[in-house]
Amino acid sequence: MSVRLRVPTTEDAGAWADLFDDAEVMRYVGTGEVRDRAWYAAFVQRQQELAERTGLCLFSVLVAEEVAGFTGIQPWTQPWGPTGVLEIGWRLGRRFWGRGIATEAGRTVLDRARTLEVPRVVAMVHADNAASLAVARKLGLIEEAALRAPSGVPVLQYGVRLTAAS
Ligand SMILES: CC(C)(COP(=O)(O)OP(=O)(O)OC[C@H]1O[C@@H](n2cnc3c(N)ncnc32)[C@H](O)[C@@H]1OP(=O)(O)O)[C@@H](O)C(=O)NCCC(=O)NCCS
């Protein structure tokens, strides 16, 4: 399988909006709200700026050159949880699920983070999101904490140290 990552292009915003216009995809993401094209256009712009600044972002995942979703690393931006830590995340259109794509893309992202000497990343996953928890575990992340989002949703914090402790 050919899985490739790129900094999302302006056109990728439309592809993401189409792929994620699906309540099943959004079921365990934040409030579960489906977002429109304008929202993804602003989201992609933020990822482009982040990539420029840090070398990391939520990258577009391409499978046989078709946009399948995103996987990447960004700062944790919520007012609760692991403030100041970098978060790894993944989201694919439903037809791309179950083929090992998120795990393969996640490995590439972690390799980049190691090259950039990122000390540690966390994944914040809805406690019922079995597929996402499986990806986190396959990438070597381990459970660190059980939290509750302000909305009341149970969230598991998984994490991994990427650089040797000094
Ligand atoms: C989470 C997500 C990115 C996984 O993508 P994927 O490419 O299908 O993941 P992979 O194929 O690499 O790995 C999925 C693993 O979960 C397992 N899995 C999938 N559904 C499962 C379920 N309902 N129960 C238990 N395990 C499950 C698979 O068996 C696989 O593990 P295995 O390789 O050990 O068999 C995808 O399901 C998705 O986009 N979900 C919607 C968005 C989302 O929830 N993102 C995460 C927010 S924290």
Write a structural description.
The chain is of the alpha+beta class and 166 residues long. It has one domain: Aminopeptidase, CATH 3.40.630.30. Helices cover 34% and strands 30% of the residues. The chain contains five helices and seven strands, in the order βαααβββαβαββ. The protein has a seven-stranded mixed sheet, sandwiched between helices. The chain is globular, with a radius of gyration of 15 Å. The termini are far apart. The chain binds coenzyme A. The site of coenzyme A has 21 residues, from β4, α4 and α5.
In short:
With 166 residues, the chain is α+β, with helices and mostly antiparallel strands. Helices cover 34% and strands 30% of the residues. It has five helices and seven strands, in the order E-H-H-H-E-E-E-H-E-H-E-E.
Which helices and strands appear, and what pairs or packs with what?
Blueprint: E1 3-6, H1 10-19, H2 23-26, H3 37-54, E2 58-63, E3 66-75, E4 86-92, H4 101-115, E5 120-126, H5 130-138, E6 142-148, E7 154-161
Parallel strand pairs: 4-5
Antiparallel strand pairs: 1-2, 2-3, 3-4, 5-7, 6-7
Helix pairs in contact: 1-3
